[in-house]
Structure formats: C-alpha cells, structure tokens
Amino acid sequence: MNARGPGPDRAAIAAMLAAHHTLTLATCRDGLPWAATVFFASDAAFNLYFVSDRRTRHAQDMAACPEVALAIDADPDGWHAVRGLQVAGTAALVAGTDRARVLALYLEKFSGVKALFEQPRSADEKIIASRLQHTDFWCVRPDYIRLVDNSRGFGFRIEWRPGDAAAASPG
Fold first, then answer.
1. C-alpha to C-alpha distance for 150 and 136, rounded to whole angstroms
2. CA distances from 27 to 20, 24, 37, 88, 99 (A)
3. DSSP string, 86-150
4. How much is the pTM?
5. For 12-36, how does the pLDDT look when each residue is reduced to its tens digit (9 = 90+)?
C-alpha cells in the first residue's frame, strides 16, 4: 500500500484525522522549542491545514525553520486506550488560489465556524469571520506519520511515508 492506494492502514490514519479537531504543533527557532495547539483540517494526501497569524510565535518559527512535528491524540486514562498520530513534516504558507480550496476544507470540517463565517450574528463572530478571511492558512506536508494504537496491542503502530508502503508492527 502507498500514499495513493486504499488499505486498512491508510484508512486508520484517515479515520484518526477525521475524528480529531486539534493538533499540537511543535516548532523550533534559534534552538528554542515551542508547542501550540491549533484547529486543523486535512485532505486525502494527509496534508494538514490550520490558521495562524504571522505574528504568533509558531508562525514566526515556521517562517524561519519550516521543519515541524505534531501530535494528534486524545487524553486517555489507561495505556490500552492510547491512540494518536505522530507526524514530521514541512510547513508552508498556503498561497494563491489554493487558499479558497483550503478554506472550503476547513469550513467543511467545522460547521459552526462555517455558520458564523457565512452569517455572523454578533460583534465577536464578525471579528472571527473577518480574521478567517484574512489570516494565513498554513499547510504541513507530512514526511512521516506514525499511528500508535494500543487498543490493537501494546505498542502497536503503523508507519507511513509518502510513496512508501505502510508497515504495521507490534511495538
């Protein structure tokens, strides 16, 4: 199986992306690490999209050093329920006509944001809609994804790289 082909491993990664709304983004600049939680949407190629103002620390970090890592997971209370994605990739601003496509993906995932974007009902919603129209979208193109799923056995993981076959292994 590869990035374009069907299969249970690809489906497991896609399901994890669909089931979660936030990711923790890890950046680094001048040897100083940083982490930020952002809402995200994804596409069929597992590219991850989020909104970040250029003035934020993580956006400045990505502009200086586009190599990032991120984690998508829940907060379980037992080892058997640990499930999540660990991703390494390259971040870039979404430019030109791609922005409209990415905005549509984002609004499709977040129906509440779509409603306030299309018809803001309060001053706060008008501010949010305006910022969403003008704030940068970023894309992280994954170089590596590891899905960890202890419900399938302690240490179970699926590893994926674009163009490679995914490989499942038991820890």
1. 36
2. 20, 10, 11, 11, 23
3. EEEEEEEE--TTHHHHHHHHHHHH-HHHHHHHHS--SHHHHHHHHHHHHSPEEEEEEEEEEEEEG
4. 0.86
5. 999 999 999 999 999 999 999 999 9
